[in-house]
Amino acid sequence: MRFRPAWILRGDMSSEEGSMVPQAGLEIDRISKRYGDVVALSDMTFEVRPGELFGFVGSNGAGKTTTMRIALGVLAADSGTVRWAGEPITLSTRRRFGYMPEERGLYPKMKVLDQLVYMARLHGLETNAAHRAAEDWIARLGLRERRSDEVQKLSLGNQQRVQLAAALVHDPEVLVLDEPFSGLDPVAVDVMSQVLKEKTASGIPVLFSSHQLDLVQRLCDRVGIINKGKMVACDTVDALRSGATAELVVHAPQAPSGWAAGIPGVTAVSQADGRTVLQVEDFADDQEILKAALATGPVHEFSRHRPSLAELFRNVVAEEGSQ
Fold first, then answer.
1. H helix or E strand, kind and range, residue 88
2. Per-residue pLDDT of the chain (323 residues; tens, 9 = 90+)
3. Is the pTM of this model over 0.85?
4. Partners of 48 in the beta sheet?
5. Domains of the chain in sequence order
6. Could you tell me the sign of the dihedral formed by the alpha carbons of 176, 182, 184, 190, in that order?
7. Among 103, 186, 206, 215, which residue's CB has the most CB atoms within a 10 Å radius?
8. Which of 59, 60, 67 is nearest to 41 (CA)?
9. Which of 176, 209, 207, 181 has the alpha carbon at shortest distance from 72?
10. Residue 273 DSSP symbol
11. Is the alpha carbon torsion for 106, 110, 112, 118 positive or negative?
């Protein structure tokens, strides 16, 4: 985790020199939500620390969007508390949040510039400041040529850029983004990734959900995996991956089926076309495994593999589903 100062200088305040504003984290504390007999969330608990990019991943219907909507006050929890800066969220503090819903939350017949100015004014910016902020984000997100277009006439990717600009235009102190990378081309993904990194570097907590787990793995300081309304794993990607059982890939073309059976701490996962994938416990002896492989003939590959976040996610969800 990168170190960031406990205070930041906010230049958009009324003073010419700006004001010192304390950085604060977002806390989700034992949130539960039920729809009839369906449990949407059960004691959901985690925090997004100041200056942290927190990835929220789970299958469709796992409870990610419900959690975000409760954090924003769009939905009411049956129990539990959402806190920012150690205090329960109020209408006033919600105005300092930036929210990007998964579904489009824009007025389709409104022009891009007018829409962003309107959104900024809703969050309390004066007219001139709202125009400046809108123009800045239009330029930053590559929308300058589309600033006078109606949103409904934009491509889905450009609509997504406008949606992000709407979440950022009022210079929020917390960002909550639901599937922000959906529908974006690689260039737009890079732009959005850089924006999120800059926001966390300034001390802002960022919570975002995504099904693009390669992006989550690359960008996030920590990741929370949610399944059936419960947080089932929460840590840095490296810690989650290192806690999983390692795999050893052995390419020994002449090795017979079951050649690794009996080696302590080793379980064969698959074997095909001379390539064997082994699950290897920490106490297993790599040299003993290699010796057994060489006894069958030439060995073309002998490499240790830690599961990716996508593999880890599938394993965690499968384990939870079998319980």
1. strand 87-88
2. 333 332 222 333 333 333 344 467 999 999 999 999 999 999 999 999 999 999 999 988 899 999 999 999 889 999 999 999 889 988 888 888 999 988 877 899 999 999 999 999 998 899 999 999 999 999 999 999 999 999 999 998 899 999 999 999 999 999 999 999 988 888 889 988 999 999 999 999 999 999 999 999 999 999 999 999 999 999 998 888 877 777 899 999 999 999 999 999 999 888 999 999 998 888 889 999 999 999 999 999 999 887 888 888 887 776 665 55
3. no
4. 26
5. 7-238 (3.40.50.300), 245-305 (3.30.70)
6. positive
7. 206
8. 67
9. 176
10. T
11. negative
Which of 73, 75, 66 is closest to 42 using CA atoms?
66
CA distance 287 to 56: 39
With H, G, I as helix, E, B as strand and everything else as coil, classify residue 71.
helix
CB 17 within 8 A of CB 181: no
Could you tell me which residues come within 8 angstroms of residue 1 by beta carbon, excluding any fewer than 6 positions away? 49, 52, 221, 236
Six-digit token string for 1:
């985790």
> Distance between CA 297 and CA 311 in Å, rounded?
31
DSSP class of residue 153? Answer: G
CA distance to 81, 117, 217, 237, 288, per residue, from 306 (Å): 36, 47, 13, 11, 20
